[in-house]
Amino acid sequence: MIDVSKTADIWTVTINRPDKANSLTHAMLTELAQIMEDAQNARAVILTGTGKVFSAGADLDEARAGLAKSEIWERLSGAIAALPGLSIAALNGTLAGGAMGMALACDLRIAVPSARFFYPVMKLGFLPQPSDPARMSALIGPARTKLILMGGQKIDADEALRFGLIDRIIEGDALLDHAAELSALTVAADPKIAQDIKQMCTASS
User: Fold this and answer.
1) Which of the chain's ends, N or C, has fewer CB atoms near its CB within 10 Å?
2) Buried b / exposed e across 77-90, counting CB within 10 Å, b at 16+?
3) Tens digit of pLDDT for each residue in 29-55?
4) 111 with 170: CB under 8 angstroms?
């Protein structure tokens, strides 16, 4: 349910469970975390999904059984944040719940016009994953983060772009091509220079 393709130092990682809105099981999260931990030599990593939803978050049955509180979410988002290359979330559709952490940990986020964004953990009786509120606040500010996490608001792609939650809106048939285009300069650059620039950007945020 997780597909990986590698082309010219670009890894494309695809969540492939469209019949379940790409909801994530513990096994899928573990596989994703391992892939990201193994991607230290990748010059760029593109994370996307199959179908019209990027991910609905945790598989509901497993969430009720304890997945919502599992440390695997933090392992995954931490592995993405630690990637030395450029990481891009190419959001092929709606992003919900704990799956938000994957996108927040990426360097860039691009999305199709139909994408929606929401994180209804408080309504479900859970806390968000520990790193997610801080990462979201760094992108869109504390008040807008509370609007999503505490106000329970679902925002569309246009509003997400205005907030700074995503960086560009791209039509679906061009999404992966645009992600590859954004990766091209980093892939062609001296790896040390690219990594140093990434660290400088992080240090200044």
Assistant:
1) C
2) bbbbbebbbbbbbb
3) 999 999 999 998 899 999 999 999 999
4) yes
Question: Rounded to whole angstroms, how far apart are CA atoms 15 and 55?
Answer: 8
Pick the CATH number of 2-204 from 3.40.50.460, 3.30.70.3450, 3.40.50.880, 3.90.226.10: 3.90.226.10
Is the pTM value of this prediction over 0.90?
yes
According to the model, what pLDDT value does residue 158 have?
Answer: 98
C-alpha 30/C-alpha 185 separation (Å) is: 30
- In terms of DSSP bridges, do strands 10-15 and 2-7 run parallel, antiparallel, or are they unpaired? antiparallel
Q: Where are the beta strands (DSSP E) in 50-203?
A: 53-55, 86-91, 94-96, 108-111, 116-118, 155-156, 168-169
pLDDT digits 0-9 by tens, 100-109: 999 999 999 9
Strands 2-7 and 44-49: unpaired
Is the Cβ–Cβ distance between 49 and 22 less than 8 Å? yes
| 115-136: pLDDT as tens digits | 999 999 888 888 899 999 999 9
Give residue limits of the domains in the chain: 2-204
Residue 143 CB coordination number (10 Å):
9
d(Cα 66, Cα 136) in Å, to the nearest integer? 24
